[in-house]
C-alpha cells in the first residue's frame, strides 16, 4: 500500500482530508501558499514543506485540492516533473471537465497514474471522513487510489475514464441547483395559496415531488429540523459554491453542444442572488429571493 502522500492545497476541504490520512497512518507531507498554512498543517500532524516540489519528491500519491482548473494545471505541470515515475496524482478539486482531461494528459505524458476525484459532502464530510468521491481514470489508477480515498470518504464511485468524475459531479450539482429552485418556488406558491409548509412537505415528500432538496435540505424551517433553513441559512452548501458548479455545468454544456436551458436558468438565478450579497448563505436561501421578487 502507498505510504507517503503529498497533499497540495490545505484549505477548508484539503486540511481536514489530509488530517484523516494522518489518522489512518499515512506519512503526509503538505504544502499551501496561504501564510497561516504551516501552523495549521502541523497541528494536524502533517509535515509542511517550503515548496510544493519538496512535498512530492518521495511521494507515492499526490493529492491536490485547489480552487479551479488553472491552479490544478499549473500545480500538476510543475509537480509531474518532480515526482517519481508511476506516482499516482489525484485531483479532488471541483474543476471544469476540459481542464481535468488536460491534467490527465499532462500526467500520463510524464509517466504518472492519474485520477480526477471530486467530492460531495462539504467541510463536514471532509472532517468526518464521510465524503463521496466521484472518480475518473483508468482501472489501474483507480485500483492504486482506492485505499487512500477510502480513508477520506465513505463512498467511491468509479464513473469512467479521464474527466468522468468531474462530469458526474457537475451533472449531479446541476440537478441539485435546478431542483432546489423548483422546491423553493413551490413553497412560495404554497404560501400564497394558504398552504402550510408542513402540509406541502407531507404531500411532496411522499409523492412525485420527492427529492433531496426537499427531504434533506428543505428550504423552509420546520419540516426537516437539520436543514440550514432552521439556522438562518448558515451553510451547508454555500450559494457561491453552487453558482461555481452551475457555471462549470454551463461551460461543459457549451463545449459538448448539450442543450441545458434549466441549468442556464438556475445559474442566472444563483448569479443574481449572489450579486445581491447572499453568496455566503446556504443555497436553499434562494427561497428568499423568490419571496422578495414577488413582493416588488
Ligand atoms: P479553499 O479556498 O479553502 O482552499 C483552497 C486552497 O488552495 C487555499 O488554501 C489556497 O491557498 C490553496 N492554493 C491555491 N493555489 C495554490 C497553489 N498554487 N499551491 C498550493 N496551494 C494553493 O477552498 P476549499 O473550500 O477547500 O475547496 C477546494 C476545492 O474543493 C474547490 O475546487 C471547491 O470547489 C471544492 N469543493 C469545496 C466544497 C466546500 O464545501 N468547501 C465542497 C465540495 C468541493
Description:
- Residues 4-160 form the 6-phosphogluconate dehydrogenase NADP-binding domain.
- Residues 163-289 form the 3-hydroxyisobutyrate dehydrogenase-like NAD-binding domain.
- The active site is at 169.
- This protein folds into two domains: 4-161, Rossmann fold (3-Layer(aba) Sandwich), CATH 3.40.50; 167-295, N-(1-d-carboxylethyl)-l-norvaline Dehydrogenase, domain 2 (Orthogonal Bundle), CATH 1.10.1040.10.
- The longest helix is centred in the middle third of the chain and has 29 residues, at 164-192.
- It contains 13 helices and nine strands.
- Helix 8 (164-192) crosses helix 13 (286-295) and helix 11 packs antiparallel against helix 12.
- The protein has helices spanning 14-23, 37-43, 52-56, 69-79, 97-109, 122-128, 139-150, 164-192, 197-204, 212-215, 239-256, 261-278, 286-295, and strands at 4-8, 27-31, 47-48, 61-64, 88-91, 113-116, 119-120, 131-136, 153-160.
- It is an alpha/beta fold and 296 residues long.
- The strands form two sheets. The protein has a six-stranded parallel β-sheet, with helices on both faces. Strands 7-8-9 form a three-stranded mixed β-sheet.
- Nicotinamide-adenine-dinucleotide binds at residues 8-14, 31-34, 52, 65-67, 71, 75, 93-94, 119, 122-123, 241, 244.
- Nicotinamide-adenine-dinucleotide (NAD) is lined by residues 8-14, 31-34, 52, 65-67, 71, 75, 93-94, 119, 122-123, 241, 244.
**What general outline do the C-alpha atoms trace?**
elongated
Average per-residue pLDDT, rounded, comes to: 96
User: For the report, how would you describe the main beta sheet?
Assistant: 6 strands, parallel
Alpha-beta content class: alpha/beta
Low-confidence stretches: none
Strand coverage percent: 5-15%
Amount of helix: 40-55%
Structurally, the number of domains stands at: 2
Organism: Acidocella aromatica
Enzyme class: oxidoreductase
Pathway: Amino-acid degradation; L-valine degradation
Catalytic activity: 3-hydroxy-2-methylpropanoate + NAD(+) = 2-methyl-3-oxopropanoate + NADH + H(+)
Amino acid at each position: 500500500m502507498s505510504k507517503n502522500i503529498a497533499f497540495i492545497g490545505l484549505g477548508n476541504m484539503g486540511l481536514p482530508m489530509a488530517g484523516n490520512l494522518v489518522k489512518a497512518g499515512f506519512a503526509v507531507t503538505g504544502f499551501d501558499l496561504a501564510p497561516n498554512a504551516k501552523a495549521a498543517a502541523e497541528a494536524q500532524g502533517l509535515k509542511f514543506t517550503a515548496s510544493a516540489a519538496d512535498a512530492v519528491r518521495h511521494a507515492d500519491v499526490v493529492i491536490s485540492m485547489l480552487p479551479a482548473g488553472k491552479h490544478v494545471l499549473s500545480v500538476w505541470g510543475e509537480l509531474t516533473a518532480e515526482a517519481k515515475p508511476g506516482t499516482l496524482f489525484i485531483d479532488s478539486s471541483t474543476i471544469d471537465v476540459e481542464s481535468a482531461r488536460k491534467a490527465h494528459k499532462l500526467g500520463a505524458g510524464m509517466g504518472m497514474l492519474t485520477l480526477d476525484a471530486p467530492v460531495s459532502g462539504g467541510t463536514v464530510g471532509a472532517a468526518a471522513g464521510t465524503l463521496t468521491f466521484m472518480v475518473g481514470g483508468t482501472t489501474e489508477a483507480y485500483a492504486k487510489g482506492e485505499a487512500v480515498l477510502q480513508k477520506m470518504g465513505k463512498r467511491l464511485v468509479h464513473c469512467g475514464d479521464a474527466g468522468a468524475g468531474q462530469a458526474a459531479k457537475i451533472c449531479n450539482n446541476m440537478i441539485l441547483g435546478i431542483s432546489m429552485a423548483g422546491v423553493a418556488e413551490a413553497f412560495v406558491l404554497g404560501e400564497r395559496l394558504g398552504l402550510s409548509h408542513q402540509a406541502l412537505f407531507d404531500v411532496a415528500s411522499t409523492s412525485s415531488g420527492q427529492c433531496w432538496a426537499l427531504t434533506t435540505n428543505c428550504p423552509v424551517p420546520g419540516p426537516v429540523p437539520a436543514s440550514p433553513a432552521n439556522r438562518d441559512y448558515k451553510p451547508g452548501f454555500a450559494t457561491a459554491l453552487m453558482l461555481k458548479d452551475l457555471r462549470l455545468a454551463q461551460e461543459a454544456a457549451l463545449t459538448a453542444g448539450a442543450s441545458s436551458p434549466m441549468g442556464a436558468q438556475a445559474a442566472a438565478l444563483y448569479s443574481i442572488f449572489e450579486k445581491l450579497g447572499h453568496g455566503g448563505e446556504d443555497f436553499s436561501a434562494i427561497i428568499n429571493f423568490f419571496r422578495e421578487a414577488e413582493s416588488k
